[in-house]
Amino acid sequence: MRPLRQILTADAALARWTERQQRERAVLQLVQRELPQALAAHVGTASAGAQELILIATGGAAAALLRQRVPALQEALERSGWKFTVIRVRVQARPPRSGAEKVLPKQIDAVTAARLSARARRLADPALRDALLRLAKGCAHRIPDDDPSGEEPEE
Predict the structure, then answer these.
(1) Is 106 helix (H, G, I), strand (E, B) or coil?
(2) DSSP letter string over 66-132?
(3) Does residue 42 form part of some domain?
(4) Looking at 91, 121, 139, which one is the last position of a domain?
(5) 134-139-142-145 Cα dihedral, nearest 10 degrees
(6) Which of 36, 23, 38, 39 lies closest to 77 in space, CA to CA?
(7) Within a domain: residue 96?
(8) Helix or strand or coil: residue 44?
(9) pLDDT tens-place string over residues 12-62
(10) What percentage of the chain exceeds 70 in pLDDT?
(11) Which domain holds residue 53?
(12) CA–CA separation, 58 vs 41, rounded Å?
């Protein structure tokens, strides 16, 4: 089995692609070093051609800040040997992470509902008592309205 590096360099198209990726990575690292850390996290490269550098920002605000810094970036790139005549900035919003978990609302379990129901029955304010009893009754494990003990469950 051949190593991946050998496969990537053997094919001409893959070799050009690898070279372009390395070039873009090197330019991006230099650009990100010149930017504040908070802004650098929102910047990427779309293309680093011979004459034109296309930077991408994850939002409009980041793009506006990046556009203000283009002259300084161009000078820093020239000092490092990169000669771009044009630096363009484009906005490319990142898609939401697919691994983001859905936040579930807090659930009231049966034990908590029984405690809430028992404490609600001891309240003098009828509106608050009724609201808390409705809340306790609405949980997944229904609590009977007529709990004979009327006492708080043991902990």
Answers:
(1) coil
(2) HHHTHHHHHHHHHHTT---SEEEEEE-PPPPPTTPPPPPPP---HHHHHHHHHHHHT-S-HHHHHHH
(3) yes
(4) 91
(5) -20
(6) 23
(7) no
(8) strand
(9) 777 777 788 888 888 889 889 988 888 888 888 887 877 888 999 988 999
(10) 81
(11) 4-91
(12) 9
Residue indicated by tokens 């929102």: 42
Residues 70 and 109 placed together within one structural domain of the fold: no
Identify whether the C-beta of residue 44 lies closer than 8 Å to the C-beta of residue 28.
Answer: yes
Residue 145 structure tokens: 């309205």
Domain boundary among 91, 118, 139: 91
Q: Which residue has the tokens 């007529």?
A: 146
Place of tokens 């990100």: 32
The tokens for 41 are: 């996290």
> Does residue 68 lie in a domain region?
yes
In the numeric block, the tokens 């920002």 are attached to: 57
- Has this prediction a pTM greater than 0.70? no
CATH code of the domain containing 21:
3.30.300.180
Instruction: List the structure tokens of 53.
Output: 């550098």
